[in-house]
Amino acid sequence: MQPIIQVKQLNKIYPGGFHALKNIELEIRRGEIFALLGPNGAGKTTLISVICGIVNPGEGQVLVDGMDIVRDYRQARQRIGLVPQELSVSIFETVWDTVTFSRGLFGKPRDPAYLEQLLRDLSLWDKRNNKIITLSGGMKRRVLIAKALSHQPDILFLDEPTAGVDVELRRDMWQMIRRLRDSGVTIILTTHYIEEAEDMADRIGVINKGEIVLVEDKNSLMQKLGKKQLTLQLQHPLPTIPAELHNYNLQLSEDQHQLIFSYDSDSEHKVIVNLLRKLEDLEIEFTDLHTTQSSLEDIFVGLLEETA
Amino acid sequence: MNIHAIKAIYLFELARTWRTLMQSIASPVLSTSLYFIVFGSAIGSRMVAIDGISYGAFIVPGLIMLTVLTESTSNASFGIYMPKFSGTIYEILSAPVSAVEIVMGYVGAAATKSLLLGLIILGTARIFVDYSIAHPFWMLGFLILTAITFSLFGFIIGVMANSFEQLQIVPMMVIMPLTFLGGSFYSISMLPPVWQTITLFNPVVYLISGFRWSFYGVADVNVGLSLGMILMFMLTCVGIIGWIFRTGYKVKV
User: Of A5, A111, B72, B143, which has fewest CB within 10 angstroms of its CB?
Assistant: First the structure.
């Protein structure tokens, strides 16, 4: 199936000479949740801004469902909704007026029934006649989402959607994003909350210094790069690792009370059982054991260090 | 053509006018009424008629022009500056709208508002002075052309401005003096010959002269020239706006 967004050899150099995007190659699949991770200033917002038409593209090409974002900008942009990072919204307007405005701006005829349902879904219906200036920050964020969805786009960009949002709203937002995905909307979100990507995304892209460092299925990424460790608390200190155990990737703690076994998360389960049997044979007793798995954050930090 | 978008921008901008009714309508009407009372009724009754027109009636076209010029400029400039200032311009830039549609929305709304204001002031003037309109069709034509032209001009200022101060500087420091010196309150034939020549470099002279002709059939400069000057200024503004959107100047990097 044709990807819904194709970015080909995209470069962006700002007037001051800052090379914000370097030869970006990226494909977003239809109906997925794609998380774009990267530190501040990595190029996340620039990439989104180019795709959405806010920033002029440099060299290269971006296709939205096969349509060029420059040549066929009308058709391309009609498909896209954008929730910006900043809370930019006309504060003197009412919630209802601002979503009606957004729908019209994107070329759609009035549809009060759809907008009512949208505001109800976002718990904004009771506030529809309130001026935006009277709303809390979290509510303003919801208004921005309502505006972005007012023209029924099938691609939704969320630039740092949960920055400065309380726990409850964040949970609501995650639920809403999943509902949207279930209804067929493709979602691209940028974040630097790793757990957000870990929780939500189907695929993950990492961008650093204007370059895409990696694009990978989330599960396979965590499997591939994820390391597991089994730590055994020993009853008696062990001066050295016995020769019989040299086949295993083992380390001994300085106090000689901990034996640490590192293995890949996709290793066969048997490997642990075998190790434990060997320890029993060697009469090495342990009082406790626990395993840890590297999080996406560890993977992410590792990747950035590699590319630094 | 994205008609829904033009309508959305147009209605959004007009809604801003209704939200700020006192500032947008009441205040210009009040200040112009004061001009009519002071210059038209009080001082005007002691002045001699100009070209056979009583002084009170003579200043009506000039005062309407003064309002239409300043209001068109400040409305349109504010309309496009605000989204730039508040960041909401992201939505306009990401929408499936062309430059022409954006300009039609913003400039259309600003011109509509100042046109309405001009007509309200025309009606208000009736309370204070007696005047006649010799060419109503041309009167309306001049008014509409001026409102559109100066709304285009205001749009340019709004795009270029970097602060609220810069936004207000042009209407206050340029439009107002040019209008006062452009024959709102006098016929340029009353000036010494040297100043008559210098005044001809003031574009507002042509607007007021043409507009006054539509009322009383007399003009300082040829009516065709007045019309030509307005159209030329309009085309210049359209050209600059075209360049702004082509290059993205101050709107898009």
Answer: A111
Domain with A14, as residue range(s), is 1-79+154-162+180-222
In this structure, are A295 and A189 located in the same domain? no
Q: Is the ipTM of this complex over 0.85?
A: yes
Q: Once rounded to an integer, what is the mean pLDDT over residues B71-83?
A: 92
Q: What is the mean predicted confidence (pLDDT) over A167-174?
A: 82
- Kindly list the residues from chain A whose CB atom is less than 8 angstroms away from the CB atom of residue B4: 103-109
CB B151 within 8 A of CB B110: yes
Chain B nearest-CA residue for A84: B90
DSSP character at residue B192: -
User: Per the CB < 8 Å rule, is B253 touching A15?
Assistant: yes
Question: If phi over 0 gives left and psi between -120 and 50 gives alpha, with beta otherwise, what is residue B44?
Answer: alpha
Residue to mutate among A19, A71, A79, A105, with most B CBs inside 10 A, is A105
B97 to chain A nearest CA, in Å?
7
The residue among B13, B181, B5, B84 whose CA lies nearest residue A73 is B5
Count of the separate structural domains present in chain A:
3
Same domain membership, residue A245 and residue A121: no
Give the CATH number, domain containing residue A241.
3.30.70
Query: Which is more confident, B130 or B91?
Result: B91
| Alpha-carbon gap: A307 to the closest alpha carbon of chain B (Å) | 28
Q: CATH number of the domain that A69 lies in? A: 3.40.50.300
What's the CA gap between B33 and B125, in Å, rounded?
Answer: 7
